[in-house]
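PROTEIN–LIGAND DATA SHEET

This sheet pairs a single protein chain with one bound small molecule, zinc ion, given as SMILES. Inputs appear in the order they were entered. The predicted three-dimensional arrangement of chain and ligand is reported afterwards as a token string under its own label.
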Amino acid sequence: MIQPIFVYGQHILEQPCTDIQLESPQLQNLVNNLWDTMRNAQGCGLSAPQIGLPYNVFVIDSQNAFQAIGKGFRKRYFDAEDKGIQGIFINPQLLEVSSKMWKAEEGCLSLPSLIKGVSRPWQIKISYYNEQLEYRIQEFSGLTARMILHELDHTNGILLINHMGLLIKKYLYFKLKSIKKGRVKVSYPISTR
Ligand SMILES: [Zn+2]
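PREDICTION REPORTED AS:
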């Protein structure tokens, strides 16, 4: 079911989440709601706190981006053989990051109309449980790794604006204030409760 997306200013977006019990009857519903809500908002990733639940769970879709961008761009965002993924990450843990970094612009459904260039590791290794509740240790790179790191940030209470300097935050003061009050034009339901 499509849920309203919590936007900047909500306490839940700024607190670290906890692991969810794998036996929790809430889990399947949560995953379905994340997919429905993300797709409805035409996003490429969404974490549980963004729909008001403080759990280490998120979904990402880098496959869609892979298909949408031209061949020339693919080299910049994906390793050879990588075609992106549609993935569910339950109780993920970041195990390793590469020293190779790269910068690219990111947006966030909880910070509508803001775009920020963020420097992140090219490659990561994480552990997590997949949708079948199987434990996995896996490496990801490029755009997929970036999306995972963005969502991991969310589950740690970190938002895109925490990657911004004080000066930019000052510059964005009024924009952030209107997002906080829900005075922002978006094509999806938002929550400012
Ligand atoms: Zn986000």
